[in-house]
Amino acid sequence: MSRPRVPVRIEAEVLFRAGHTCCVCRTKGKEVQIHHIDGNPSNNTLDNLAVVCLDCHSRVTGTRGLGRSYSRVEVRKYKRSWDQQVQYSRHVHHPRITYRKELITQIDLIVCEILACPPRDSRVKVLLDMLYEIFLWRGNREITRKIIEGLNHMAVMSGIGTTPIAPLVAEKLWDMCSQYVGPETVPMDKQDTLEVLRCIDALNILAEYNCEFGRGKSAVQPIAGHAERFFEVGLWYSKKRIADTVLNGYEKALKSCYSSKRIVFGFGRTTLRKSVRKLQNLLSAQRPGWSKERIRLKKLLAI
Ligand SMILES: [Zn+2]
Fold first, then answer.
1. Distance of CA 131 to the CA centre of its chain
2. In which band, very low, low, confident or very high, does the pLDDT at 258 lie, cut at 50, 70 and 90?
3. Residues, CB within 5 angstroms of ligand 1 (ion)
4. Ligand 1 mean position to 54 CA, how many Å?
5. How does pLDDT run across 19-75, given as a tens digit for each residue?
6. What residue segments make up the domains of the chain, in order of their start?
7. What mean pLDDT is predicted for residues 167-172?
8. Deepest in the core among 27, 133, 214, 258, taking most CB within 10 A?
9. Which of 17-21, 80-84, 285-289 has the lowest mean pLDDT?
10. Interval between CA 21 and ligand 1 midpoint (Å)
11. Which CATH number, 1.10.10, 2.40.50, 1.25.10, 3.30.110, labels domain 97-301?
């Protein structure tokens, strides 16, 4: 049976984003292939397709050599950081001023439209993807900030609104942040760190408001899952500020599980505590010397 082909339009987009160059070795002019990161040949989403040369392809699939093959997470990181570098090199992140103003207005409109969507409207996902595309292809600092501000606004509303958008917003915050997180070889500069911190602040609001209003599994679990990933970013890069900002969110969220005087939001509390224990394991494995953070985690379990 022949494997299903990647649709031509998607293939062209993937190759264009990668500048027709292998995202792992980044050697120009080599012959390239499209690799399905998750190993599923029918998953043709943009996020799952990486451009690799023939040499690197055997390394990512682990079919040759004795060395360890690249993990999926690694390949995804290479892809993201490379796509971003190609994008920067094309200078698409510096649109002219009038155009920028137009984009800012568009972002506002999209945010309003998301907030006005009726419950479980599939348009929410489409609109969030639109915001993300604007960020990816036109996102200078001003536009990025505007989009994160929009996500922040949605985070506040997700606690009281009827539309269960919290998991989608959490996912987008992570997607945005992951653009700044490369393989260790790609440094995270001061500005990048600030954007990551802004994403975490929005995630913290999401956690706090959803716990305060006792949202179920659909919200708290994915929020905690993404918070763990953000925490890990702090550990990888040895940036205490990132880890501490994540912990601020846990503290507020755990406290807000008790905000209703009569009923404790038990599911939220249990989920967050489980997540705190995961953070403890990550911390002791990766940064055993961070004693302040260790103490803070212990205190969180006492809330
Ligand atoms: Zn290569």
1. 13
2. confident
3. 22, 24-25, 53, 56
4. 7
5. 999 999 999 999 999 999 988 888 888 888 999 999 898 888 876 555 667 888 889
6. 8-89, 97-301
7. 91
8. 214
9. 80-84
10. 8
11. 1.25.10
Q: Looking at per-residue confidence, does 292 or 102 come out higher?
A: 292
pTM of structure? 0.70
Q: Residue 59 has which token pair?
A: 């390394």
pLDDT given at position 103 = 86
CA of 5 to the centre of ligand 1 (A): 21
